[in-house]
């Protein structure tokens, strides 16, 4: 199988920012996935988001599930941005896959094709993997962002990374991080709730009413 072709604008050498400028990332610069994901100045994020979306598309195919990509830097300054990855259950990315994401992000441009193929082969052979069987109709990357100006450009990077292996891309627009976690879980567990903003609001209000009702009953019992 031929190595995939990666767009130059999402390479370390030709990393294009949301303002259209080239912001190269030295190959010797190593980046770490932390509790907040990858979080830096927005200029650095394009190639990172592209590669993270590829990793998430592979995980989505392995599990035949929806996986999340959240473009946000939370309370950081507006000039920053970041990417957090969400597992099918709506939880944070597993530690093992944090390791895979870090390895792919830190690969040189020259080594990236072989690193991608090696990870693809490893996941194809993993226990219960759906990749080899082709049973990946539910695989999708669900992506949201906050209101930073760099968000739309990074969404396009995530879309390109997901397209590398033809995984369905779902852009849910501007959402909070909890909403993205909720949406991913809802896609994978339809009985849990509706994977929309309205569904999220209904679930939160229902939980609040239930909690308030319990509290009222406890007060009346005193």
TrEMBL record:
Keyword Zinc: no
UniProt entry tagged with the keyword Transit peptide: no
GO biological process: carbohydrate metabolic process; UDP-N-acetylglucosamine biosynthetic process
Cofactor: Mg(2+)
Key words of the record: Isomerase, Magnesium, Metal-binding
Homology family: Belongs to the phosphohexose mutase family.
Name the record gives this protein: phosphoacetylglucosamine mutase
């Amino acid at each position: 199988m031929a190595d995939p072709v990666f767009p130059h604008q999402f390479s370390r050498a030709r990393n294009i920012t949301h303002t259209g400028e080239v912001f190269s990332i030295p190959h010797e610069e190593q980046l770490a996935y932390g509790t907040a994901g990858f979080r830096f100045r927005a200029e650095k994020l394009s190639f990172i988001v592209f590669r993270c979306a590829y990793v998430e598309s592979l995980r989505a195919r392995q599990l035949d599930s929806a996986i999340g990509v959240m473009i946000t830097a939370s309370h950081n300054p507006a000039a920053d941005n970041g990417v957090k990855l969400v597992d099918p259950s709506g939880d944070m990315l597993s530690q093992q896959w944090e390791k895979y994401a870090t390895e792919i992000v830190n690969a040189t441009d020259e080594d990236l094709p072989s690193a991608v193929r090696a990870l693809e082969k490893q996941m194809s052979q993993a226990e219960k993997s759906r990749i080899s069987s082709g049973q990946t109709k539910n695989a999708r990357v669900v992506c949201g962002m906050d209101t930073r100006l760099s968000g739309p450009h990074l969404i396009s990077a995530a879309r390109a990374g997901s397209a590398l292996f033809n995984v369905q891309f779902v852009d849910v627009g501007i959402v909070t991080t909890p909403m993205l976690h909720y949406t991913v879980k809802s896609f994978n567990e339809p009985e849990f709730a509706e994977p929309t903003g309205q569904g999220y609001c209904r679930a939160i209000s229902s939980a609040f009413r239930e909690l308030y009702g319990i509290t009222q009953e406890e007060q009346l019992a005193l």
